[in-house]
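Dear H.,

Thanks for agreeing to be a second pair of eyes. The structure we're designing against is below in token form, covering all 581 positions.
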């Protein structure tokens, strides 16, 4: 056999045993009469010793070993004279009797160590080398554990793992599809699924009343730290359930995963908040509730004082950045410049300092008397040492801008501890959102989300006020997942398509199979999908999901390791019936 033990298994209990190890050369140190080699595999590192006095030829062979050579050694476990408490195998070393080079290696383009000297793009190009690093492997191990515990929990709850197709029909709602030309059906295309939405609903019609799948999904959209063109969902659906049944079931899943994988226990039920309340208090449908700084509406307190920026604004909203009154003018100017960046688009920032001596200093002292500013402080529950930061403008824009400012301040003040996990269910999303460019409604989630029963009467008169029977789970400012109670009635589904601007012919062409299925007795059903990548990244305490994907794409959607996407040959294009301009 190539090895009797792994490089992380041996301890002082194995002293005097004859063992065989195999792995990669991490580093070697030539000290004259002695050569030391660190041997690495997935499980750890073990130190090898080669003694010139015992075997000169073997020691000479060891001196020629380069980084990342793949070798096999046979030797005896001995006690290490200078023990390393930072290594699991630090009490022992292997006195080597024989050495076999299984494969030589070129010098890698970066060091295969936790603190590597390789940049992101270089490591992505040589991802198979990057994956040898312990820090990267630990992230994949965390992902494996989350997936394993997900399966364990859902299996215990009676869910059935069912695969759904990867080649499906393109649909007009949601993000852009990735499409695949069909050779056998010239001029026609499959789409890669953005989610298994219609298939899991069909499984409910089929009588598979508890379905789940850890499934690849695909969306052709601009990338960011928590978004990849292909991502993984924990996709679930249940029949004969109401909203609360789903929330309790999948709250249980998250609690189970955190306890088993992280050793973290949520003792209380997850708090719940409506979408409207979340937007009013935090300006976000995925608020980070690890810290306060809730929004304060100053509109009524700031109007009519002759300050045009506030007088002409729809809304004036601010936050209380506690203990920040000693922020310098330079720091405040930096915040203002940050807010004025195109990606945020604020016009400016107004501040009011509640100094430790009880006086108040504001950037708009010219327009507001001390009594007015005292009213601001009272409204924000401010105390000496606090700093108010105010933005003004259209309500929706100001909320988004202030949300970004709130998160920045939370980060700057060290209030966003990645080891502090604060979940929140956000409920009662709007069913529809108005598209000003196309003068039509779009489904805020998807066309199969059911309205709240008490709002059904508004569908024909005030559709913009209809709330969806939908819910998201946010944690630490990240949307971990979401879902809804689905429409299971053909007539209501048809009305929804009408409301979204589908003609009867378009609805039939796109979703006729689902409408027909509803005619054969569809049970009430609903579900939820968690983003596995985001969930694992949140547990791991990082923002980027790319670190937890074995072979991710870069920010341009490219796999630089295999150089994809790439052109097709003229022969392939001809066979597919596709012309490229």
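And this is the sequence the design step returned. I haven't edited it by hand at all.
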């Amino acid at each position: 056999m190539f090895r009797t033990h792994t490089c992380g298994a041996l301890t002082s209990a194995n002293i005097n045993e004859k063992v065989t190890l195999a792995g990669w050369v991490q580093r070697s140190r030539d000290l004259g009469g002695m050569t030391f080699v660190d041997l690495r595999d997935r499980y750890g590192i073990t130190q090898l010793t080669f003694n010139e006095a015992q075997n000169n030829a073997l020691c000479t062979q060891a001196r020629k070993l380069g980084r990342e050579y793949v070798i096999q050694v046979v030797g005896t476990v001995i006690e290490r004279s200078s023990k390393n408490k930072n290594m699991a195998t630090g009490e022992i070393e292997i006195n080597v009797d024989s050495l076999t080079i299984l494969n030589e290696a070129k010098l890698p383009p970066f060091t295969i160590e936790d603190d590597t000297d390789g940049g992101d793009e270089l490591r992505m190009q040589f991802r198979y080398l990057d994956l040898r690093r312990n820090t990267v492997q630990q992230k994949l191990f965390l992902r494996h554990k989350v997936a394993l515990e997900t399966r364990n929990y859902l299996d215990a709850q009676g869910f059935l793992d069912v695969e759904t197709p990867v080649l499906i029909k393109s649909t007009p709602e949601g993000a852009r599809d990735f499409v695949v030309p069909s050779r056998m059906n010239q001029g026609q295309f499959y789409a890669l699924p953005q989610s298994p939405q219609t298939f899991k609903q069909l499984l409910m019609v089929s009588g598979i009343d508890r379905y789940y799948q850890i499934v690849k999904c695909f969306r052709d959209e601009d990338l960011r730290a928590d978004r990849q063109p292909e991502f993984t969902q924990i996709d679930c659906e249940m029949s004969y359930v109401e909203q609360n049944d789903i929330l309790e079931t999948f709250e249980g899943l998250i609690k189970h995963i955190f306890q088993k994988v992280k050793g973290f226990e949520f003792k209380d039920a997850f708090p719940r908040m409506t979408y409207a309340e979340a937007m009013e208090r935090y300006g976000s449908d995925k608020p980070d509730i690890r810290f306060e700084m809730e929004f304060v509406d100053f509109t009524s307190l700031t109007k009519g004082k002759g300050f045009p920026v506030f007088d002409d604004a729809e809304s004036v909203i601010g936050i209380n950045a506690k203990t920040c009154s000693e922020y310098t003018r330079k720091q405040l100017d930096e915040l203002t410049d940050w807010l004025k960046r195109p990606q945020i688009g604020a016009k400016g920032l107004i501040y009011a300092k509640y100094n430790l001596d009880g006086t108040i200093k504001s950037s708009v002292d010219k327009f507001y008397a001390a009594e007015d500013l005292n009213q601001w402080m009272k409204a924000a529950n401010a105390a000496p040492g606090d700093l108010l930061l105010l933005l003004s403008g259209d309500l929706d824009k100001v909320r988004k801008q202030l949300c970004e400012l709130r998160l920045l301040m939370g980060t700057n003040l060290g209030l966003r501890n990645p080891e502090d996990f604060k979940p929140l269910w956000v409920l009662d999303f709007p069913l529809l959102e108005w598209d000003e460019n196309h003068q039509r409604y779009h489904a805020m989630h998807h066309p199969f989300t059911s309205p709240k029963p008490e709002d059904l009467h508004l569908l024909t008169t005030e559709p913009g006020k209809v709330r969806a029977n939908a819910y998201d789970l946010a944690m630490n400012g990240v949307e971990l997942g979401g879902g809804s109670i689905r429409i299971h009635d053909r007539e209501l589904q048809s009305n929804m398509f009408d409301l979204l601007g589908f003609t009867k012919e378009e609805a039939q062409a796109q979703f006729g199979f689902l409408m027909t299925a509803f005619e054969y007795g569809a049970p009430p059903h609903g579900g939820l999908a968690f983003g596995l990548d985001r969930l694992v990244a949140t547990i791991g305490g990082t923002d980027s999901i790319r670190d937890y994907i074995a072979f991710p794409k870069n920010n341009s959607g490219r796999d630089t390791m295999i150089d994809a996407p790439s052109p097709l040959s003229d022969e392939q294009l001809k066979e597919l019936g596709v012309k490229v301009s």
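Two observations from my side: The CA atoms of residues 372 and 437 lie 41 Å apart. The two ends are 56 Å apart (CA to CA).

Warmly,
E.
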